[in-house]
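Deviation from plan, reported transparently: ribulose-5-phosphate complex.
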Amino acid sequence: MTGELSPIDKAKFVAAKRAAQYVESGMRVGLGTGSTAAWLVKCLGEMVQNEGLRIKGVPTSTRTAQLAREVGIEVISLDEAKWLDVTIDGADEFDRNLNLIKGGGGAHLQEKIVATASDQMIVIADVSKSVETLGAFPLPLEVIPFGWQTTKTIVEEALIGMDVMGRDVSLRMNGDRPFITDEGNHILDLHLNRIGNARQLSLVLNQIPGVVENGLFIDICDAVVIGYGDGRVEVRDINAGSVEESKFDFLENDNLFTDISD
Ligand code: 5RP
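Because the crystal trials were delayed, the predicted structure below was used instead.
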């Protein structure tokens, strides 16, 4: 399944493989978006096909929906599911309190709705996503296309009163056109460098007309599964206050990972 992977992909894969252990038959599972979440979807697809896992998946983007169907996961909408047992997703940054920046893939609106409608949100990430303070990664802000330049100006003015270290705001592009989200909106990327008060910033940004949702996930994530290129995995659970370590190892001949921690 893994083929010849780079260390970073190995890290994403082992994080996904460990997080897949949170999923049991009968669960309704939120499926995140991005390269790490794609590993999770593949792992779950393999469990559906080879281990008889029965789940219903709620994807957080059209990309993830397509991949989930391809690997054999039954896909339903959030309204059909109503509530989810667990959502597993990637992140662009996480801090020691498991607050996150998400939306590097432009899907944070659906991701936040789905994660909030879940008993548990598990983040899967390689260790490069771990930060002392959020903000080095540009904060994504989904805005409606109508009047977006005016919205951008108001966002820039609002940032003057915020505890941040940078205030540049750029429109996310897809080639020579504005990036369009699954909801038909634009993304403004806020280059803040350091966010002093993420909770306050999130509230202020979401009050601006034209802003649909920001990429700060505050008090939403329950645990982060951190993968390393050598197969080590660390699970930090904010509710239990625990840190658990395990290791996956390559099988020499077929290059598959196997869990050797049990
Ligand atoms: C998409 C996201 C992704 O989870 C985030 O960008 C991380 O992606 P990757 O796993 O590819 O690094 O928030 O909107």
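The chain has two domains: 2-130+219-254, 139-213. We consider this an acceptable substitute for the interim report.
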